[in-house]
């Protein structure tokens, strides 16, 4: 899995950090920081949930990558 | 009105049969009339959106503006003066990027998580008082109403002895039915005076709180003005108090109205996170929705909306859209993922949502731990709605344990 974040779309809700803190963090101003572009399989479920519930639709996943 | 139609015009807000049930019209509108014509309390016309995909599209599209003060935009109520229509709302939109950026510093997931032990201690303290007085109790007065004010006071560095004052002003500034226009304005004046003095005190002697940080903050080379600091304080109170209070009350009513829900959580408290998201999705009494105003023609659900149209996005109706959710009309405490629209979407989605989630999760965890035998003291059909135009709530949630 490859994780792609769109800083322009990110609205800083922090849902991704709460769901997958090993993959996502936030800058001071709330904007997402991608910690792990290729997260291990154990985290895939949480990352998928983060992408699904992101209010800015700022997280894209390439499942085959 | 900008749209030609011979169909029936509904009075908005729609009425629901009981405080916990959705209006009957929602399902019909989603199915057959996704762009519905409604008459607002002011008598002005608007269109109502109830489908998940439409509400999501509109809230994320900046052409649907928040400028409800513009000529041609529908007034929501007869009196006007709602939080959507004020001068502040307009200037907040202009300076939105800047103040949102600044606010975010305090509302990042990690900072909110760091506040969690304090929030838990506050919930425990309020429940201590309820337990001392013994059952029956009102969960609104005892817990749901004060807790979010205490949290906001903590954020703003306001001393504990002033919590009650803040709670009163907040209630009066937002609750248009319970207070007169004059009382509302009086509350605004008193709150402004208090905040002016408080900001000055924080300038002189900064603390560890958000306000002290904002006083010291420099954004793009400019410190925040007195007026901006005041608006941030008021914004946090207006946006963070009644909404969270009402949601705590409705959460408990929803979870206790069917015993199996409460028992499911007692058996497995790890469900608290998904349960809170489902509460947010399932809340049928969420209030007015979000109004938007367009100045150019835009298509929604295959219908052209003319420039000059006011659009009401009903997130609660959209959250029950069968096209977006399986068994949308069933409350499922394990539902995941749950991309509900309750906090809005896009650049204007709720900046305090991580804090709101933490308050809801913490309250629920503490109640499960402290009062496992908690139950409603009246039948749920008798729960009385809290009247107010913008945010749906409950007057009281009588409980015993």
SSE map:
The complex is a heterodimer of chains A (65) and B (401).
Chain A: E1 2-5, H1 15-19, E2 24-26, E3 32-34, H2 44-53, E4 59-62
Antiparallel strand pairs in A: 1-4, 2-3
Chain B: E1 10-11, H1 25-32, E2 35-39, E3 45-49, H2 52-60, H3 87-94, H4 96-107, H5 109-133, E4 137-138, H6 139-144, H7 146-156, H8 163-174, H9 181-204, H10 210-216, E5 218-219, E6 222-223, H11 226-240, H12 242-257, H13 259-267, H14 272-282, E7 290-293, E8 298-300, E9 303-305, E10 310-313, H15 315-318, H16 353-370, E11 375-376, E12 385-386, E13 393-394, E14 398-400
Parallel strand pairs in B: 1-2, 3-10
Antiparallel strand pairs in B: 2-3, 4-14, 5-6, 7-10, 8-9, 11-14, 12-13
Helix pairs in contact in B: 5-7, 5-16, 7-8, 7-11, 8-9, 9-11, 11-12, 12-13, 12-16, 14-16
Give structural notes.
The complex is a heterodimer of chains A (65) and B (401). Helices cover 23% and strands 22% of the residues of chain A. Chain A is α+β, with helices and mostly antiparallel strands and 65 residues long. Chain A has one domain: Alpha-Beta Plaits. Chain A is globular and about 30 Å long. The termini of chain A are close together. With 401 residues, chain B is α+β, with helices and mostly antiparallel strands. Chain B has one domain: Cytochrome P450 (Cytochrome p450, Orthogonal Bundle). In chain B, the strands form 5 sheets. In chain B, strands 1-2-3-10-7 form a 5-stranded mixed sheet. Chain B has a 3-stranded antiparallel sheet with strand order 4-14-11. In chain B, a hairpin with a 5-residue loop joins strand 2 and strand 3. The longest helix of chain B is centred in the N-terminal third of the chain and has 25 residues, at 109-133. The N and C termini of chain B lie far apart (54 Å). In chain B, 44% of the residues are buried.
Task: Give a quick rundown of the structure.
Chain A has 65 residues and is α+β, with helices and mostly antiparallel strands. Chain A is built from two helices and four strands, in the order βαββαβ.
